[in-house]
Design brief:
Number of domains: 4
Strand order of the largest sheet: 6-7-5-8-9-11-10
Helix content: 40-55%
CATH topology of the largest domain: Rossmann fold
Number of helices: 14
Radius of gyration: 28 Å
CATH class of the largest domain: Alpha Beta
Length: 431
């Protein structure tokens, strides 16, 4: 059973409302708001703006602005009014009663986009959990008039029974989803432990939504992740193994795009997915280099990384879309110690990927060992261990039964295998 909110298959005519509030320290971006509506499949027919010192307690907007919205709905025959703000359940109900049409706030809009984009079973569960948590407050508060029914002919029972039934249905579904997501988190943790045992480093791509992460990921890994010029094109994490020079196999993970004031319930719901970023050895923070509010977007991503305890991880900035900048060339930026801190490239034009791989190789811990070992017949256990680690590149046997084994593997693995065999490098004559 799914409790996703139903959505029409065609674009709904929508009136957009954005207020500049003096009480807001970080106002929402009206351009991003319009992109969100279009990404959700809406058809913006009117965009009303205004300013207030603080939200109106009953309608969020003032009564004059409410009349203006009502006129816009009637003149444009709109089916939906969307606010670029979070409304309380009572404000949402009051506005709907006045406008006689559906009202959606910013959180509800983002949830709807997430519902459309989720493709895996896990992603759909995460979205449904966030939707139900959002719905539960509106459901419970929406029935408060029935909670006050203490008696009277015809007023006993049914209202409270219906309220409790709805509450129980939502509560049980939330518990069921949380239990299934807990299982997913355990499976992910097992996968990470297996990668840790194999000592395969992990690199996660993070960044503001529509920064070009999926295009970059596809080019890096030759994957086929869904790509579109819209917000939240990718929700479900995708992982691919790639061989990086001097490092060997590396796991690259694509993650959900971040956005300003990402609702906390979405951060919580997608925590299992975002853990892939929080447990990486290196973060690639992908930035739209051509975005006007580039610095703001970087700050917003850093805020979400802090929420998931990933802000202290080693990070390499990747400034994408340099093809949209004048006289910009692919390059590596280094700090005073010579360490790569940023790479400028164009994923669309395949420009700068060699520099990105070079920077990733320099930033990841550990080095590869590439040697030819001379093994005696008694060293069969070491030979078998090298094969089990898929480290053998070539093998030649001489007339005496000795083996020249060309191997390539992580330095830490190499040292561990030698120790397990009770050998030192000088025991094996390298040719």
């Amino acid at each position: 059973m799914s409790l996703f909110f139903e959505r029409p298959d065609f674009g709904e005519r929508a009136v957009l409302v954005h207020l500049k509030l003096n009480s807001e320290s970080e106002p929402e971006d009206p351009r991003e708001f319009e992109e969100l509506v279009i990404s959700a499949g809406g058809d913006p027919v009117e965009f009303l703006t205004g300013s207030r010192s603080a939200p109106h307690a009953k309608f969020f907007v003032g009564t004059g602005k409410l009349d203006e919205i009502c006129s816009a709905v009637k003149s444009s025959d709109a089916e939906l009014v969307i606010f670029n703000h979070n409304l309380s359940p009572s404000q949402e109900r009051n506005i709907e009663a006045e406008l006689k049409c559906r009202v959606l706030d910013r959180t509800g809009l983002i949830l709807d986009i997430f519902a459309q984009r989720a493709r895996t079973h896990e992603g759909k569960l995460q979205v449904e959990l966030a939707q139900l948590q959002h719905l539960s407050s509106r459901l419970i508060r929406g029935w408060t008039h029935l909670e006050r029914q203490k008696g009277g002919i015809g007023l006993r029972g049914p209202g409270e029974t219906q309220l409790e039934s709805d509450r129980r249905m939502v509560r049980d579904r939330i518990k069921s989803i949380q239990a299934r997501l807990l299982k997913v988190r355990k499976q992910r943790a097992q996968g990470r432990r297996a990668r840790d045992r194999a000592e395969i480093p992990a690199v996660s791509l993070v960044g503001y939504t529509n920064a070009g992460k999926s295009t970059l990921f596809n080019k890096l890994t030759e994957a086929d992740v869904y790509v579109a010029d819209q917000l939240f094109a990718t929700l479900d994490p995708t992982m691919r193994k790639v061989d990086v020079a001097e490092k060997g196999p590396v796991i690259f993970a694509d993650t959900v795009g971040f956005i300003s004031h990402l609702p906390h319930r979405l951060v919580d719901a997608f925590r299992a997915t975002l853990e892939e970023a929080a447990n990486a050895d290196l973060l690639l923070h992908v930035v739209d280099a051509a975005a006007e509010d580039r610095a703001t977007n970087i700050k917003r991503v850093e805020e979400v990384l802090k929420e998931i305890d990933a802000h202290r991880l080693p990070t390499l900035m990747v400034y994408n879309k340099i093809d949209l900048l004048e006289d910009s060339v692919s390059r590596i930026e280094r700090n005073a110690e010579g360490q790569p801190v940023a790479v400028w490239l164009s994923a669309l034009n395949d420009e700068g990927f060699d520099l990105l791989f070079q920077a990733v190789s320099e930033r990841l811990p550990g080095q590869l060992v590439h040697k030819t070992l001379h093994l005696l017949p008694k060293h069969g256990a070491l030979r078998a261990a090298m094969y089990s680690h898929k480290a053998v590149l070539s093998e030649q046997v001489d007339d005496n039964g000795c083996i020249n084994l060309e191997v390539k593997l992580q330095e830490m693995d190499f040292s561990r295998l030698l120790k397990a065999a009770g050998l030192k490098l000088e025991d094996l004559v390298a040719l």
